[in-house]
Amino acid sequence: MKELYIDENTGQVYTLPGPNRKKMVLENQNYSVKVPEPATGFANRPDEIGNEKLTIAGRIQFRGISGEEGSVYSNGKSDFKTVDWHFRRLRLGFIYEGNKWWGGLANLRLENAISSIYLKTKKDPATGNVQDVSLANARGLIQEAAIWLNIPFMKSRLTFGAGHVPFQREYIMTSANLTNIERSMSTLVLPQFDTGVMLTSHLLKPFSDKWEKLLTGSFMVGNGHGGPGDYGYGRRIDLAEERPNAPKLLTPAYYGRIQWNPFGGLEKDGKDLGWIEGEEIFQKDTKLSIGTAFASMANVKVPSPLNPDYYPAGYTQPNLLAYQTTKDGGELGASYNEGINKTTPGRPKLGVIGHTYDYTFTSHGFYSSGAYSVFSGSAAPQDLKGYSFTLGYVLPMGGGTFVMPIARYDFLQGDFNWDKSLEPGESYRSYWVGLNLFGDKHVFKAQIFYQAFHDKLKKNSITGEAVDINDNVAYLQLQANFWTGTMTPDRFSRLE
Fold it and tell me: Which Gene3D superfamilies match (predicted)?
């Protein structure tokens, strides 16, 4: 510690001795005391405190939607005469990395905290009088919560907890980086989040450090219950919990994905940070990412309803999968089609297998992405598949601002009434056209989009022909991201 000297005449402080200078003795300068260990609470910290990194991230997505007469965003009597203003996402996340080899995160879904709270009533079966009123379980505030361990071999990461499943490309990208207002319809088939254990590795790392970011692989064993903040079961998400009117389904879900980036990933200060979906659009270099993945569940445990944004008002939304509500094996004598959610001796389990193939390509402002997903198994309707294709162009305006006109085609079909035939009302087509205005890349973003939805759920009263419902929708969305801390994208590249 440097010694200090004070001039007795002027009071000026010096670092060297001299005339009229007296050495300063700082109170408690060399005094230390051991803080007693508390009875409760935190007693210790990691040894290498200097290596610890904490990042706090938040997001606001404020949206206005107006729709045609047949949409859910209309008063039912006129087109585009009302606007629904609401928060699409309110997120707050904490990412912590301690001593380089471990870390953790907790991501909160705050829009669920301001969502509608529903009452649950208990009535007297004899009189019908209300006996008790309580709040129903919330959808859940936890979006992600996990602890990870960094493993040197193949530069791997082993993650324990609730997080995104390594399936479709749009699953594993943060919603902050979406170039479209919403993800494609096929992403609604399986839960986007699950609770379990996941291993992610850079498969070419042992062969060459230069190839490290080119090929990654992920494998996850999860519960298959969905994330607590998504459309999972909520407060408890362990497999063995007793649930009213539902069997114990102790079957894990398996997910796996491989992604190849032949031209490398995001580059910053001459360093390849790996592929960060949505960030590549701001670079002129040619970039390509190709992925394929699978998902397998012997038992489907959560409903997967079609998003109301994609479905007209007054029509019952179909479940994209038949989730299992009875025990394995079914009841003797039951017919094969004994209700789509019930097992039978001929259909002992309601399971699903999914495969997806996707890509993203950018070059000098041009942007293209696409995905094809197909699902099979006893829980999947016949011919369940979906695909999407997106084109856009990024125009730099200077100062970190960009303009991006963009268009998307989105398709989903399946025999949702289980009559072994595809009807016009079981094929959904969505046409999107929009404009992204990036004020500071994805940190501040304004999005103006129009969605033309073709569902053919309506029947002509005279001819009986299936016709489209007028349920097109216009969107205006503003996004602001908050990101503070010392962690860099190469250390942790995703916060949903």
Answer: Porin (2.40.160.10)
Strands (E), 377-467: 384-393, 395-398, 401-413, 427-438, 444-454, 458-459, 466-467
Cα separation of 251 and 272, whole Å? 39
Which DSSP string corresponds to 33-56?
-PPPPPSSS-----S-GGG-EEEE
Task: Please tell me the distance from the alpha carbon of residue 479 to that of residue 390, in angstroms, as a whole number.
Answer: 21
Q: For residue 312, give the nearest of 201, 188, 470 by alpha carbon.
A: 470
Beta strands in 24-154 (DSSP E): 53-67, 84-98, 102-109, 119-123, 130-135, 142-151
> Which tokens go with 457?
């759920």
CB 91 within 8 A of CB 58: yes
425 DSSP 8-state letter: G
318 or 488, which is more confident? Answer: 318
pTM for the whole structure: 0.83
- 24 pLDDT band (50/70/90 cuts)? low
Q: Where are the alpha helices (DSSP H) in 169-326?
A: 169-172
Q: Pairing relation of β-strands 466-467 and 13-14?
A: unpaired
pLDDT at 489 over 60: no
Residues 6+ apart with CB under 8 A from 168: 186, 187, 293, 356, 358, 371, 373
DSSP category for residue 170:
H
Q: What is the pLDDT of residue 465?
A: 86
Residue 167 pLDDT > 50: yes
pLDDT of residue 457: 87
* Residues 6+ away with beta carbon under 8 Å from 373: 168, 186, 189, 354, 355, 356, 357, 385, 386, 387
Cβ–Cβ < 8 Å for 253, 296: yes
Cα(306)–Cα(377) distance, integer angstroms: 19
**C-alpha atoms less than 13 angstroms from C-alpha of 195 in its C-beta half-sphere:** 20
Weakest mean pLDDT among 34-48, 126-140, 401-415: 34-48
Q: Which of residues 494 and 339 earns the better pLDDT score?
A: 339
Domain ranges of the chain: 1-33, 88-400+481-485
* Range in 87-91, 255-259, 339-343, 380-384 the model is least confident about: 339-343
Residue 169 pairs with which residues in a beta bridge?
A: none
Q: What 3-state DSSP class applies to 439? A: coil
